[in-house]
Amino acid sequence: MTTIVIFGAGGKTGSSAVAEAASRGHHVTPLRSADADITDPQAVARAASGHDVAIAGVAPAEANPGDFFRAVADGLVTGLQRAGVSRLVWVSIASLLPDVSGVQPVDSYGFPAEYRPFSLGHRTALEAFKASGLQWTAVSPAGDFVTDASPTGGYILTEVGDLATRITHVDHARALVDLAERSGLRGQHLGVAPQSPFAAGSVAGRAGHR
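RE: above sequence
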């Protein structure tokens, strides 16, 4: 059994991760924004103390995305280190996964200007994790979430994004918890794509799923 603290448990991604982890018998501490300020290292340290791994999937309500994600990264890095928690699974965004040409969508011509601040805020967080001593893995949909489809019960991991793909929150949560259970990964951003014959040919690997 693994002890997992989940920041952002009030959202669809976080709540799906809570349900998946609990279904496997892990000890889960679900935290909403009102339960712990993820931008406050002391609050993160108190919440994470005694846990093996942290999963974090958060978004700014009204704050500037750049400021928010910079503060979140500082809160997590400093707070988790104080709590002695070295493993972090971070819910990232597909616009930071390179496409088949090696270009991150956020850097491509024609990327919608209204989405750039949010994507660049996520990039700021990844840069902070890279500079830290945490054993972190970033996980995002290879494309986006779908809410009107049934879970397939499986998934494929990829290092190459495909914005046309869609994954359910439940299948994505399986990937989050699978990766939380693995202690040897560090410094990777992986996309989650549906396990099907029609999955993008860019998929780079698979993960064990339950």
